[in-house]
């Protein structure tokens, strides 16, 4: 059989002049006939950090989907940027509105809205939580990241934050620490596998409600992710749980600039909902040889 793979760039920073802003994701609509092995084959062939596979729940459903995410290496329970891309793809075909995605991490509702020719999507993450990092684990992480302990910002305790996946969250004191980040891929990959982390979210407080970030993503088979919606949601929960922002508020996370793929994620933090809202746009990428894949 042949499967059509739609390609989108999620969370592009529209203020950027870059030729490749945002984080590319694959989207497969009507995936109900695909096996798990076929989904993994598509994700591996495309090579993006994630591809989302949507199967309608109920005959002809246009607003509720069983949604699974695969990186080139394995299935991932939840992925923010592929969720945004998939919701925009659905809205372009069926009109804006609420889309419910039943993921391995739970039900995720995505609100899509039309703003002229642009469609924005806002996902509400699963309930967030965080926990401290054991000192020996933090030492191992800093060693793999090649970061000295004094580079950490004491205002932002190291935590493992959750919003569908687990992410190590580390705040650094200076912006140049992000620019110079060059980690040991093999060591960090092994540590993340042992600890069950999906990404390592290294961030810098750049201004009022403004943060810059980089996300190491060895479990996905890529060195770095240019825009990570799930990590942004977990980060929003981290800020709320530790009282580091007044709620309700919206913070901006700028990511991917060091990769040449500048991205902007708007993170809505509310005290009345256990999840976190993450908003962005997604733009359709031009066709490639991978848009049609022959499957066994």
From TrEMBL:
Keywords assigned by UniProt?
Isomerase
Which SUPFAM superfamilies does the record cross-reference, listed alphabetically? Diaminopimelate epimerase-like (SSF54506)
What InterPro entries does this protein's entry cite? Answer: Phenazine_PhzF-like
- One Gene Ontology term of the molecular function aspect: isomerase activity
Listed Pfam families: PhzC-PhzF (PF02567)
Which protein family is named in the record? Answer: Belongs to the PhzF family.
Q: Quote the protein name from its UniProt record.
A: PhzF family phenazine biosynthesis isomerase
Annotated source species: Nocardioides bigeumensis
């Amino acid at each position: 059989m042949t499967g059509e793979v739609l390609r989108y760039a999620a969370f592009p920073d529209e203020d950027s002049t870059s030729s490749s802003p945002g984080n590319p994701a694959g989207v497969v609509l009507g995936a109900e006939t695909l096996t798990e092995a076929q989904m993994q084959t598509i994700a591996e062939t495309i090579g993006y950090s994630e591809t989302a596979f949507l199967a309608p729940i109920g005959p002809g459903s246009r607003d509720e989907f069983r949604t699974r995410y695969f990186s080139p290496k394995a299935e991932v329970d939840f992925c923010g940027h592929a969720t945004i891309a998939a919701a925009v793809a659905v809205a372009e075909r069926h009109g804006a509105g609420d889309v419910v995605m039943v993921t391995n991490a739970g039900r995720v509702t995505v609100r899509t809205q039309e703003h002229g020719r642009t469609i924005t999507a806002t996902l509400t993450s699963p309930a967030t939580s965080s926990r401290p990092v054991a000192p020996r684990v933090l030492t191992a992480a800093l060693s793999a990241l090649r970061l000295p302990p004094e580079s950490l910002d004491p205002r932002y305790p190291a935590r493992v934050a959750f919003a569908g996946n687990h992410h190590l969250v580390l705040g650094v004191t200076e912006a140049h620490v992000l620019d110079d980040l060059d980690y040991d891929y093999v060591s960090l990959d092994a540590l993340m596998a042992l600890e069950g982390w999906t990404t390592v979210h290294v961030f810098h407080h750049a201004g009022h409600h403004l943060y810059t970030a980089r996300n190491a993503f060895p479990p996905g088979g890529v060195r770095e992710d240019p825009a990570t919606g799930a990590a942004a949601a977990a980060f929003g929960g981290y800020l709320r749980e530790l009282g580091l922002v007044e709620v309700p508020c919206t913070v901006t996370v700028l990511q991917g600039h060091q990769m040449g793929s500048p991205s902007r994620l708007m993170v809505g933090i509310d005290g009345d909902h256990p999840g976190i809202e993450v908003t962005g746009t997604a733009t359709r990428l031009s066709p490639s040889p991978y848009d049609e894949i022959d499957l066994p």
